[in-house]
Specification:
Layout (H helix, E strand, L loop, with lengths): L12 E4 L2 E4 L5 H9 L4 E4 L3 H13 L5 E5 L7 H9 L6 E5 L4 H16 L4 H13 L2 E5 L4 H5 L5 H8 L3 E8 L2 E9 L1 H16 L4 E8 L2 H14 L5 E6 L2 H7 L3 E8 L1
Parallel strand pairs: 4-5, 9-10
Antiparallel strand pairs: 1-2, 1-3, 6-7, 6-11, 7-8, 9-11
Helix pairs in contact: 2-3, 4-5, 8-9
Length: about 260
């Protein structure tokens, strides 16, 4: 999708032990094994040089202005690093904090890219972003909150409670922060509740829907099948594995649903 619409992606970095690489070159199976073996796995924002190179390359290719859109600033330093690079760019760069992650961000960027491709200027592009982001929703199932706790994305007390009595946590994004949605007994029941929550969020509107997973292909496939039946109004449905950087924090077995009203 990024290639089709001319979207430049600056990758997050992943460290496994002492080795740090860009996320797109870290094999997913290697990452899953490292997490399951309780190795030290962390993520970090791209360095300022990565953004400067991207902005300069776009300028060389004829860009007069750039809209640079990023994961919630309350989840990552990426937005701040992009702002620092934008201040050194030779063309104006409009840096946007999406306040979200996953395909809620992805669908908003695609909508903005279509506006840009049709000749829209930066203001129209950012208006398109804002419209899609305003009513979008990220709904997330994780087997355990431990990975989010390790990464500092959710409190330690929530990690303990989420694992008690086989309670499975359902999460969402609120004001750019990963927040509890519900705790449900058992994974199968939790996934049914996740689908129910997605249907409520869609609320009969025309929506784009994505089912994302990390090392949970079969489980995510069942979720997608249920959504196809229950959301006939969906315009576009995407089935994909999350980026490695997100996978580090949600952990193996995670499934997410993105709802993006069109």
């Amino acid at each position: 999708m990024a290639s089709q619409w001319g979207i430049t992606v600056v990758p997050t970095n992943i460290s496994i032990g002492e080795q740090t690489r860009a996320e797109h070159v870290v094999p997913k199976d290697v990452l899953v094994r490292a997490l399951e073996q309780d190795m030290t796995v962390t993520t970090s924002a791209p360095d300022i040089g990565g953004f400067l190179w991207a902005y300069q390359d776009l300028a060389r290719r004829g860009a007069d202005e750039i809209v640079s859109v990023h994961i919630s600033s309350r989840q990552s330093r990426t937005y701040e690093v992009a702002r620092q690079a934008a201040a050194q760019s030779r063309v104006p760069v409009h840096v946007v904090d999406s306040g979200t992650a996953g395909m809620s961000l992805g669908y908003a960027v695609l909508a903005a890219a279509r506006v840009a491709g049709a000749g829209g200027g930066p203001r129209r592009v950012m208006d398109a972003l804002a419209r899609r982001l305003e009513h979008s929703a990220e709904l997330i199932y994780v087997d355990t909150l431990e990975y989010l706790r390790k990464g500092g994305r959710i409190g330690a007390a929530s990690a303990v409670l989420g694992s008690a009595l086989s309670l499975k946590p359902l999460l969402t994004m609120v004001n750019g922060v990963v927040s509890p949605l519900e705790r449900v007994l058992g994974s199968e029941r939790a996934l049914r509740h996740l689908v129910d929550a997605a249907v409520r969020k869609a609320d009969g509107r025309t929506v784009d829907v994505a089912v994302e997973h990390f090392g949970a292909l079969g489980r995510a496939g069942k979720v997608m099948a249920r959504l196809r039946t229950r959301l006939p109004e969906a315009r576009e449905m995407t089935f994909t594995e999350v980026s490695s950087a997100i996978g580090v924090h949600v952990g193996p077995g995670a499934v997410g649903i993105s709802i993006s009203p069109t």
